[in-house]
Specification:
The protein has 207 residues and is an alpha+beta fold. It has one domain. Helices cover 20% and strands 27% of the residues. The protein has a 6-stranded antiparallel β-sheet with strand order 9-14-10-11-12-13. A 4-stranded mixed β-sheet has the order 7-3-6-8. A hairpin with a 2-residue loop joins β4 and β5. α2 packs across α4. The protein starts with 9 loop residues before the first strand and ends in an 11-residue tail after the last helix. 35% of the residues are buried. The model has no long low-confidence stretch (mean pLDDT 93).
Length: 207
């Protein structure tokens, strides 16, 4: 008889900003600092600094500190880059320099040129409140670019062209027609502007 599989850690990030326990890891990992766990569950902290980044699963130098490192950043996981953006992250300049340059170029078109420190300060104000609640806004669906996450019927959906794809932690489900109405937007306002300016996030194959 096989021993039971250990429960997954609470380290999977959703477009709603929640961090849940989920076995499927997705395409990317990310960094918010060292987040303490107790019996596989996070404490109250959801970040230790403002530099929330989206990283490759494999470190450029092959380093791996484990899922709960004592002196290195705690890996979080995203289904794809669009989910990471919705949760308030941006591409990592170190392990994903091409994606970072594309994001920075699109950002500069609408927000002006700036370094990553100022970019992260602006993002932080637009992604989360002090009590760890996701900042959301309302917008006309027709005005939103592909790659934006919205809520439909209380569930996250990814906008792609004329359609919206249902999100689940393991991949995207059926598509519905893009609504013709005001919608609740999960992706931070400055990131939506960068998507509109031409940044194209890397999506899960199910999209």
């Amino acid at each position: 008889m096989c021993p039971p599989r250990p429960s997954p850690l609470q380290n999977r990030v959703l477009p709603t900003g929640e961090i849940v326990a989920e076995r499927a890891r997705g395409l990317f990992t990310g960094n918010r600092g060292i987040l303490p766990f107790t019996e596989g569950r996070l404490g109250t902290s959801r970040w230790k600094h403002q530099h929330w980044i989206i990283c490759d699963l494999k470190h450029p130098k092959g380093r791996y500190h484990g899922p709960i490192p004592a002196r290195a950043w705690t890996p979080l996981f995203f289904l794809d880059e669009a989910v990471g953006l919705a949760a308030g992250h941006r591409p990592c300049a170190y392990c994903r320099p091409d994606a970072y340059r594309r994001f920075k170029t699109a950002w500069a078109k609408v927000h002006g040129p700036m370094g990553h420190l100022e970019m992260d300060r602006q993002l932080h104000k637009s992604r989360v409140t002090r009590n760890r609640q996701q900042v959301r806004h309302m917008a006309e669906s027709d005005d939103l670019p592909s790659g934006t996450f919205i809520l439909l019927g209380g569930h996250p959906h990814l906008l792609l062209g004329d359609h919206a794809r249902t999100f689940s932690p393991r991949g995207y489900g059926p598509s519905v027609a893009r609504p013709k109405a005001m919608v609740e937007v999960l992706t931070p306002t400055p990131t939506v502007a960068s998507l509109r300016a031409g940044f194209q996030p890397e999506l899960h194959p199910s999209a």
